[in-house]
Every structure is written in structure tokens, then in C-alpha cells.
Amino acid sequence: MYNYDVKKPQRRNHMDYTKETCKSCGKEFAEGDDIVVCPVCATPHHRECWKENNRCVNEELHAEGYVWSKAKKSKAQPEAQPAEAAAESQDYDSAVCHICGSENPKDALHCGSCGALLAQPESKEDVTCTFCGRKNPANAFSCSECGAPLTLSAATDDNPFLDSTGFAPDDMIGSTKADNLARYVQSSSRRYLPKFKKLADGKKTAFNWAAFFLAPYWFFYRKLYKAGIFFAVLFVSVSLLTYGVQDKLLTATEEYYTAIESIQVSDSQVPAQDDIEKARQASNEFFRKAAPCEAILIGISIIERLICALTANRFYYKKATDDIQTIYKSTDSVAFRKLMTMRRGGVSLIALFTCFLGMEVLMQLLVYIANQFM
After folding, report:
1. pTM, whole model, 2 decimals?
2. What residues contact residue 7 under an 8 Å CB cut-off, 6+ apart?
3. Is the peptide bond before 121 cis (omega within 30 degrees of 0)?
4. Would you state the pLDDT for residue 88?
């Protein structure tokens, strides 16, 4: 890519500019003239001409990729021509460096003499984005419509998300192709596609360890927002209903530490028999009060998480198939279907952290309200 902001010219190298014309003053260069070349297009100037204008005489053509060349031009042609026109007149058996004039192999990227970047002939065929179908210039790196990288189009067509899943693109999982489900699930296809297949074949449930440990946040992470909101409300509601049990556990813990701190230890740091008995009684009292509370809270938490783990895959499979069917009904464009499937699927870290912060704030608010009115 050219840097159009460069203003400092380069000194003449060993290239012979005699009988060439300075485009600024129109005079031919003579032996011994102080010549500088534009660092962008390599147009030669007298140093005084450059200082007078403080710019390249062909600066307006830089955006078109113009490169100065010693190739002879007919009088009918303009003195400066775009790179596309210059490329048509060049002999591509060798590449001539526009800085030093050295000949290089036609497929060379840099000049072997001075290291300058060589201009390469460009293909005039447009590149079609496989995601949205937009045509882009042959030298474009990303699509001007959707931003998808054009250099990864072939890999996207092959669908790398199907690798190691054991499914072919046209294999059916229920009423949906494995290719579409893999694009929807993306990097976790190897884990979820076999589970979807079992569900589609009639299996009632499939356990999801991620949903068990991360519930209800897992649902937001996988963009299952309706199910996520349902389980978030369930978790908050159960937590409020068990607030009395949590309060008893907290009270028992505080009483235990208070009793332990009240035990006096002699200077010899050897507790007396009475102190040992007091500590034993405090521990027994703590476990008597805390054990039932902990058992209730742990049991309820396990039940909640089991419900999430046993329903997560079915929710995920249903949402994936519903979203894919909606996309395929909305458009006939294959490229647009691929793009929308990947955008609807995947994961969302923003949704996960939003759920986490939202539940924490809501719990603190509800506990504060409960303390104020109880």
C-alpha cells in the first residue's frame, strides 16, 4: 500500500535519467543534474523543481496507483497514466524496478538491487464474497458489504466446523443438514452435533455438564435468551425463598466464631480443659444448626442445576433448528443464509457478563429491600 503522506523525495540512484524530461519544468535532464525521485510513484524531478512545488507533479495520480516508467509512450497518450494502462504496455517477462531501473523476475515482490516493492500486474476479475454475494475488487482483502475476509472464502465453503464431527455436509440431523448446524454451533460442533443427532433420533434427554456448572449463565452464553431469562428468574426466586435458611446458616456461623473468640487461652498457650470443652460445645452447636441449612441449600442448588443440564441440549437444538428454518424461509441467497446462520449462532460473552452482573445487582437489591421491611 502506498503512503500518500510522504513528502520527502529520494536521491537519484544509478538509474540513467538523461534524455528523460522533468515533468515539473519540462526540461530534459542533463548529465550532472541534481535529481530526486518521488518516493510514491518514482517520478524524477530537478531538486529545485521539487523545492519550488514541495510536492510531486503527479501527486493527483497517486490514488490511482500511478507509477512512473521509462517505457516509451506515443504522443497521443498522456504523459502520466494509471497503473492499469501502464500494466498493459509492460512486458511481464521481467519486472523493472521503478526506483533503480533494475530488471527482476516477473514474479518477484521486491527489487533485488534496492529492495523496493515491485508493482505486480493485477487480475481484473472481481471477487465474490461467499457470505453476502457482494462483488469486490480483485485486490480487496475484505468484503465492502459485510466485512467478511475474502481470503477465507474457500475455507468457509468447506465449513471447517464439520472437521472431526463424523458428519458429512449433507447428513441430516432431524430436518436440518449437519452443515447448517455446524455453522450455527461453530467451534463446539464436535461436542454438540452427536448430541443433537441422539435427540433427533428420539432420545429424551442429553446431559450438559457446561450448563450444570454454569447455569443459568450458559444459556446467555449460547444466546438462548428466553430459556436464560426463565432460569435466571428461577434461581433468583429460589434464592429469595430460601433466604430464611441462608440467614440461619449465617447466624450459626457468627455464633460459632463469637464463642471461639470468647475462649481465654492462658499465657502458656495450652488451653485448659474447660476451654476445650467450650470449643467442643460451640462446634457441636454450629454443626447442629448449620448442617440442615447447608443440606437444604446444596440440595436445592443441585436440583436447579440438574434441570438446566437435562434440558439445555434440547433447548439448544430446538433454537438452532428454528433459527435455521427462519433464515432459509426469509431468503434464497445461499451466501446470505450462511452469513445469517453464523451470526445467529455462536456465543456471546457480552450476554454472559450482562447476566452475571444483572443477577448480582438484582440479588443485592432484593436483599436490601427484604432487610428494610422484615
Report:
1. 0.55
2. 54, 55
3. no
4. 43
